[in-house]
Amino acid sequence: MRPPYPHPVVAREGWPFLGGAVAAALLVGFFAGAWWSVPLWLVTLFVLQFFRDPARSVPDDPRAVVSPADGRIVAVEKARDPFLERDALKISVFMNVFNVHSNRAPVDGTVRERWYRPGRFVNAALDKASTENERNALWLQTRGGADVTCVQIAGLIARRILCYVGAGAELTRGQRFGFIRFGSRVDLYLPIDARAVAAIGDKVYAAESVLARLAEHG
């Protein structure tokens, strides 16, 4: 299953950066010579790889919780959801500067609430980033009544969290809802009876990798 995707290959957030890098490289090459433009072409390649945003195939399992981001699993643990004030299963994905930074919905659901918290910019791989760093959280509720909190967290280099949905929005698994510029982290708080599939150290891909499965009720 592939959700509608209007911005293939390069994320829309990257076009101004990519256009600026190409223009700078061309100008330097024209006025100073090709060799002087080489560093700027390397910058252009970095920008292109950073803002790449390929379409993804989404698992059909209705109870699957897919990864909201590309990266590496740095936490799978029971924790307190600071937004819904409940005990939860927490799974965290750390994104370095070489990962795709587009963020995708982990489940089918309705956005019940959105919160923004200003904060610091410590290394997003550290546990304290979950509570100290700048972050944006979405409360998603599935049709089966499961509550999932998805938290975008700024990192040491990341200074811009982008989120394009708010309360009342309907999201499908794998649907793009935001972007974080440069190294960062996404935390998921799932119902305590969800079963983790991913393990610490796993490399995961947004919309494709299954992190957990929600319990079947009723």
Give a verbal description of the structure:
The chain has 218 residues and is of the alpha+beta class. It folds into two domains: 12-50; 64-213, Glucose Permease (Domain IIA) (Distorted Sandwich). The chain is built from three helices and 14 strands. The protein has an eight-stranded antiparallel beta sheet, with no helix packed on it. It has a three-stranded antiparallel beta sheet with strand order 1-14-12, with no helix packed on it. Strands 4-10-8 form a three-stranded antiparallel beta sheet, with no helix packed on it. β2 and β3 form a beta hairpin. The longest helix has 18 residues, at 15-32. The mean pLDDT is 86.
* Mean pLDDT across every amino acid position: 86
Q: Which range best describes the helical content: under 10%, 10-25%, 25-40%, 40-55%, 55-70% or over 70%?
A: 10-25%
**Which outline best applies?**
elongated
**What series of H and E elements makes up the topology?**
HHEEEEEHEEEEEEEEE
What is the gyration radius calculated from CA atoms?
A: 18 Å
What CATH architecture of the largest domain do you see?
Distorted Sandwich
Total domain modules: 2
Spatial order of the strands in the main sheet?
9-5-6-7-11-3-2-13
CATH class of the largest domain: Mainly Beta
Could you give a short account of the major beta sheet?
A: 8 strands, antiparallel
> What proportion strand?
35-45%
| Beta strands, count | 14
Look up the CATH topology of the largest domain: Glucose Permease (Domain IIA)
CATH superfamily of the largest domain: Glucose Permease (Domain IIA)
Which class of secondary structure composition applies to the elements? Answer: alpha+beta
Low-confidence stretches: none
Note the gap between the termini. 26 Å
- How many helices? 3
